[in-house]
Write a structure and sequence with these properties.
Helix content: 10-25%
Oligomer: single chain
Strand content: 25-35%
Radius of gyration: 16 Å
Number of helices: 5
Distance between the termini: 43 Å
Order of helices and strands: EEEHHHEHHEEE
Length: about 150
């Protein structure tokens, strides 16, 4: 699935895919020590087991060698991303300036049913803000949309 050429990850024209992730304007995701507890809701043990951190899902993953490409975790669909963030969590994250982005094109390095690791030779991957949940699902909203 991954093709590493000259110690970098190349995304051939027309061969990249798009991924979805929740991040801030600098590209940092919200799973950060001492910050996650501000927005994350408790889940059942089975729910935690179904959403393993990438280091547990792919313990043998090694970053490509120098020159380093950009590598990150994301999802291949909005439905997959919704497994990681319920509406209440997502709308809390909006208050901290985290939003859902569609990034790409990128190369998928590893993929499972709940997440992927992607790579790009670009540090700044083109992205577009997308709506993870319709406004009507915002638990903080006073507007009810039928």
């Amino acid at each position: 699935m991954i093709e590493v050429l000259r110690n970098t990850i190349e995304v051939p024209a027309g061969k990249g895919v798009y991924v979805y992730r929740v991040q801030d304007q600098t590209g940092r995701g919200p799973f950060i020590k001492d910050f996650t507890q501000r927005w994350h809701q408790e889940r059942t043990p089975q729910e935690y087991a179904d959403l393993p951190p990438f280091v547990k899902e792919w313990p043998d993953f090694e970053m490509p060698e120098y020159p380093p490409p950009f590598v990150g975790c994301a999802c291949t669909s909005l439905d997959q991303l919704r497994l990681w963030f319920n509406p209440r969590e997502y709308y809390k994250l909006l208050k901290y300036h985290y939003e859902c982005y569609r990034l790409g094109p990128v190369r998928i390095l590893h993929e499972s049913r709940v997440q992927c690791i992607y790579g790009s030779p670009l540090k700044s991957i083109p992205g577009k803000k997308v709506q993870l949940y319709p406004h009507s699902q915002n638990p903080n909203s006073r507007i009810i949309i039928p």
